[in-house]
Amino acid sequence: MRFRNTGVSTVATSVTVSVAAVLLSLTNSAATDSAAADAAIPNSSAASKFAVKPVALAKRNPKLPDIVVVDAGGTITATAKDRISYQHYGPTLPGGIKDVLKPLYPELGKVANVSVVKTDITGTSSQTSSKNMYDLSRTVDAALALPGVDGVVVNSGTNVLEEDGYYLDLTVQSKKPVVISGSMHQSHTFTTDGATNMFSSIRLAASGKTTCYGTVMLMNDQFFAAREVTKTDGYRMDTFGGGNYGALGVVNEDHIRTMRAPARVMKCGKRSWKTPFDLSTKKASDLPPVDIVNGYIDSSPAPIEALVTAGDKGIVTSGHGPGDISTGQATAEAAAIKKGVLFVSATRTGGEGAYDDGAPGVIGAADLSPQKARILLQLGLAFSRKESQVRAWFTTIGDPEFDLSAFRR
Predict the structure, then answer these.
(1) What DSSP letter does each residue of 64-130 carry, written as one string?
(2) I want to staple 226 with a disulfide (CB 3.0 to 4.6 A). Which of 88, 141, 215, 270 is the partner?
(3) What is the pLDDT of residue 122?
(4) Stretch 150-164: mean pLDDT, rounded?
(5) What is the mean pLDDT of residues 61-75?
(6) Is the pLDDT of residue 382 over 90?
């Protein structure tokens, strides 16, 4: 095995935590911020400013929260060839997400003041790029920065929703609620789930109950931490789950229950609540190429060798068990490390994986999925080329946990 588990397993990323404990942690000035989260960020040429102009869907009610919906396409804004053939896609709705939201009035008008920002992102998984996610994050931050905006809801394609959500979670700098959602079946089908997903997402964002949660993903009236959520099936409505940790809460009509919280709520109100990945200091072209290589019986070293030749700066291995790879892959990995390529060892099991032990050139991803480890590695390398710093971000931001030991008596 490439890694040995020499210590006690890390605590779950999100666990049930008492309100009293959270309040204590927020008000105790002796609580120590994560050094890694406060690490200095290398200067970069200023990225272009993102300006957004939301279009209101109805007359504003000053007594209601203001929610901006960022339209990033996806199945929710697509049609089908007929009203039951949800596996066969037709054209995109002419008005995009507006065509999904307008039929929700007048009921939606009693929940929030809703406005829409259109993007040029289609939400098609095969076309989604790092630049798309960069643009989406910058758009969300720009919307949240507008005076009076209380939260943002994003609609996108469900095939990559977990990746879009984690990217936003790592990069959006506002503590205001961000909810990402979509649908499994297209609009104009008998079975579309888009309307209820959007209504519940707007309800959740408008409630303010996920302030300081970072980005959460809502589908099927459950919402999940962006770090934990994963798609488990290609077709089912209940495809999204929270892995070993489950949902954060539910939205049942106007009953919004938040049963758990991501660990970062412990830093709400502190400077270190924000991640160091402020994309306003970067351009999309600053994001380096990072890929994933699968591990399996007799897996070939050729993909690693080819990616190194192509110029990858980082590679995530999706290994068997806690993250093991074949002997041939390990040889190719060692050669690549000598050339300056940084590796992250993730597991293909969907559960706990290799804990980081400081092995040169290889960072343990713990239970972070390969696809999300890739996002964190790409962002880490965009903001620092120091292995020690990227490793620190993986073991803190990438593997957060509730730690109330400072308050024990």
Answers:
(1) S-EEEEEE--SGGGEEESSSS-TTSEEEEPTTTTHHHHGGGTTTGGGT-EEEEEE-S----GGG--H
(2) 215
(3) 84
(4) 96
(5) 97
(6) yes
